[in-house]
Amino acid sequence: MTVRRRHRLEVVGIAVVTTQLLTVVGWVLATAITRHQLGERFRPPQYHGVLGWVSWDGGFYRFISEHGYVASNAESIRFFPLYPALAKVLSLPLGGNIDLALFVIAKVSVVVAAWGIHRLVVDEGHLVGAADRAVWFWLLFPGAFVLAWAYSEALLGALAVWGIWALRRQRWWLAAALGLAAGLCRPIGVALAVAALVEVVRHWPPRPRRRLAPQLAAIVAAPVGATAFCGYASWRGFGFFAPIRIQDELRHTETPFHRLWSLPDALRGHDAFTTGLHVPFVIGFLVLLVIAFRKLPVTYGLFAAAILAAALSAENLNSIERYATSAFPLAIAAALALDRQDRLTPAAYAAGGALSVGLCALALTGAYVP
Predict the structure, then answer these.
(1) Residue 5: CB partners within 8 Å, gap ≥ 6?
(2) How far is Cα 209 from Cα 257, in angstroms, rounded to an integer?
């Protein structure tokens, strides 16, 4: 093993283990709070699984893996199939333990994604120190505590990171395969189509001509994956647009510009905590997006912008921190912004760790929607 790979393994290993342990601290804090306020036997309805790792959406993924979409209620069709399908397959050699399969996929995926982020930063010509910070910042993003849970964010992160790596190196068929999987993983996986389009335009016209087919495949793969699941939803009687329609009923779609314009209203009145809590994070994400466009190739900025636009296209800003975690170029931008600012890095890590613990605890007590 080369020195660089050994260093990358050490950084990724320490960062992943540390941030996963922070969610355990969040669970301990949530347990202490709920028991102090509501009694020894109280458990919030969102609080499921070992250390709360199957809470919230994790319960949907578990039920889909065990029983399929038809046996679930209609709301489950908004959860795309790759993660629960992989868990179903992996559970077979694990004695049918769906929870364990969901955890294994999430844990392996977060390592693969973090490894890929480190490699991307170095391959783009930045120092190893910046790559180290990028890994930590991604794992310490405000919504990144769900990377330890039975959520599909870690899997999508691995697919997106290596998908962009493949695009940047003109490995079109690999990019197409990862894009197809991303489209089957989460609806925002189609953001990889934006990145693919940028890279194809950069290398246009294709030479030799036989590269045209894989380039086009890389562009359409993620939308094809998402469309295929919509076709499945129609075949099962939910309706072709059911995965999008049911999500819209929960989030109430509007234009990102209108949502940004109305952000100040979220800081007043009864909504000041539930929605107003997200406003500082939204502002921070937008600042990081500007930095991403300035310090990274446009492919990264447009990919992150597509995800943020989808997250902001809703009246309900719940989970926007989790959405932003999928926009991993924002974490890279934060790392690059702190170049030659070594004194600020420990403070940034400490702030990220405190946010991870605090938001994880709030989510497990039901006060925050992850």
Answers:
(1) none
(2) 40
307-349 tens-digit pLDDT: 999 888 876 777 889 999 999 999 999 999 988 777 888 899 9
Inter-residue contact 323 to 289 (CB < 8 Å): no
Residue 210 included in any domain: no
**265 vs 365: CA distance, rounded Å:** 26
**Contact between residue 118 and residue 12 where contact means Cβ atoms under 8 Å apart:** yes
In a domain, 235, yes or no: no
What token pair was written down for 194?
Answer: 């934006």
Residue 95 lies in a domain: yes
**Within a domain: 290:** no
Cα distances (Å, whole numbers) of residue 225 to 74, 106, 159, 178 = 21, 20, 13, 10
The CA-atom distances, in angstroms, between 361 and each of 32, 329, 338 are 10, 26, 28
Domain range spanning residue 129?
1-151+342-370
CA distance readout (Å), 257 to 190, 220, 287, 316, 369 = 21, 27, 16, 14, 23
Contact 293, 198 (CB under 8 A): no
Dihedrals phi, psi of 179, to nearest 5 degrees: -65, -40
* Number of compact structural domains in the chain: 1
Q: Give residue-wise pLDDT tens across range 167-206.
A: 999 999 999 999 999 999 999 999 999 999 999 998 887 7
Residue with tokens 């908004």: 78
Cβ proximity of 184 and 177 under 8 Å: no
Give the relative orientation of helices 329-337 and 98-123 as an angle to the nearest 10 degrees: 50
